Amino acid sequence: MVIAHATRPTAAPPRTPAGAPRGPRRRWAAGPLGTQVFLLLLAAAFLAPVVWALVSAFKPATQIVSDPLGFDPSTFTVENFRRMFADVPIGQGFLNTAVVLVAKGSLTLFCAPLAAYAFAKYTFPGRDLLFGTVLITLMLPTIVLIIPLLLEMKELGWVNTYQALILPGAVDAFAIFWMRQVIAAVPDELLDAARVDGCTEFGIFWRIVLPVIRPALAGLAVLTVMNIYNDFVWPVVAASSSRMATLQVVLSTLAQNITGNRIGADYATVTGELLAAASIALVPLLIVFIALQKHFINGILAGSVKG
């Protein structure tokens, strides 16, 4: 015997009364294509002035003024560069900057991790007070320290010398803070195991800590190179002679050097030589950043850990 089961009618979904508030609507979210388009537009906005300066440096001086946005490769010339090298001691500026960059950068990359290692892994009286004092110096504007530092350089007889350009600020407070955050994440068990094996304290830093923090150290190296290369305020005060002028100081006095060495130099000539000098100064920094951008990004991520 077959027993028929009665099926219940399916209940219809309740209707929303007229005028009643509806549930939250799904918001539109930009997909990968929208994000890529936005980033491309942002990159184009940042790169447009750089590309214009590089291209305009090869244009005739009169064309830069008369048609600044024009692009005619058939008219490209190196006359702006030839005149600029004849009027401006940019080679001496590059040499001074290279000396300061190598010496000061080496001091920063060697001393800052060592100080950060002491703050992160050692316990000694006054450690927190001393580290807090280091952090307070980050809040002081550079202009406040210029006069005391200049008086100190004068007493030491270091004005217009490489010592004045290299030593002040060689051990940067930000570098110590960043390296401390990275080193604090290194497990203490690794350090204890090295001590049990008879490794010295400096050997622990050199063989255990340094390989672990290498990505962050590479990122710090990129930031250090950029800061030293672009530094202007302290070099223009500590090195007032043209013999010790760094690249940024030479670029700041470029127009005066051009008009002083060439009588009757017009606005177009000065503009062409300025763009030529700016392009030459820009290229090394772009090469360094492009070559080390992977290490820079990894270093930023490594320095974001919480210690």
TrEMBL record:
Domain of life: Bacteria
Record-linked Pfam families: BPD_transp_1 (PF00528)
Residue span(s) of domain ABC transmembrane type-1: 94-292
InterPro entries with a match to the protein in the record: MetI-like, MetI-like_sf
Subcellular location field: Cell membrane
Region feature (Disordered): 1-25
Name of the protein: ABC-type glycerol-3-phosphate transport system permease component
Family: Belongs to the binding-protein-dependent transport system permease family.
PANTHER family to which the protein is assigned, alphabetical: ABC TRANSPORTER PERMEASE PROTEIN MG189-RELATED, ABC TRANSPORTER PERMEASE PROTEIN MG189-RELATED-RELATED
Entry's Gene Ontology cellular component terms: plasma membrane
Matches recorded under SUPFAM superfamilies: MetI-like
GO biological process terms, semicolon-separated: transmembrane transport
CDD domains: TM_PBP2 (cd06261)
Coiled coil: none
UniProt biased composition (Low complexity): 1-10
The entry's keywords: Cell membrane, Membrane, Sugar transport, Transmembrane, Transmembrane helix, Transport
Keyword Heme (UniProt): no
Transmembrane regions: 33-55, 93-117, 129-151, 163-184, 204-225, 274-292
Location (main, coarse): membrane
Membrane topology: Multi-pass membrane protein
